[in-house]
């Protein structure tokens, strides 16, 4: 991918969005027949399928927790999700890290004390990657958990934000990074947020942001999460229509 001359010009990004716009999103709750809960999601060209099983018996047994459910996540980027020669199949350090932080971000919302000695397994399959895959997968995972009937304090909604350079050397904070923005932007953050109870459950950052840029980004991310939250609720409602 060639480096573009700029990522934002007169307040408009390369794909026509303003800084506060998320890409067009589509969510289908109950996308899979065999999983207890599932969701298919598109965020621009990023496409993810999430399947949930549980609460169910814990294997291996020694991982069982006496007072709460064990929440496990497996994030996987399919080898066909990116340009052919790039991604090698199987779990690597990046997917292990994303699986771990995703489980923590979702466990914060799930009423795990209600299901001691059980496991809730969340499988996230990225079938097409155009950046922001971990946050897109988290948004879908919440819908899949709700679809599985798993009680939660609130739904986790997730989005990325970052800093883009402009035509005149300006630096602009924007939400929902796509691939060119992720590659050539000045910073990139992933956040997960529970809009109803106003709590963040994940915050990761690549690059550098000044404190006021971070504040602006968090405020934009909260606003974007509230919009995504409405889409999550609508997807769950459609399932029962
Ligand atoms: P996220 O997808 O959550 O933004 P990263 O910042 O690690 O996570 O990755 C950004 C994007 O870079 C991914 O969405 C994907 O498009 C691309 N990418 C990541 N890892 C690989 C890889 N091993 N091969 C090809 N592309 C990759």
Task: Report on this structure.
This protein is α+β, with helices and mostly antiparallel strands and 241 residues long. It has one domain: GHMP Kinase, N-terminal domain (Ribosomal Protein S5, domain 2, 2-Layer Sandwich). It is built from four helices and eleven strands. The strands form three sheets. A five-stranded mixed beta sheet has the order 3-4-5-7-6. The chain has a four-stranded antiparallel beta sheet with strand order 9-8-10-11. The site of adenosine-5'-diphosphate has 13 residues, from helix 2 and helix 3.
Question: How are the secondary structure elements laid out?
Answer:
Layout: E1 8-9, E2 12-13, E3 25-29, E4 37-43, E5 46-57, E6 70-77, H1 93-107, E7 118-128, H2 133-147, E8 157-165, E9 171-175, H3 179-184, E10 187-194, E11 199-207, H4 211-239
Parallel strand pairs: 6-7
Antiparallel strand pairs: 1-2, 3-4, 4-5, 5-7, 8-9, 8-10, 10-11
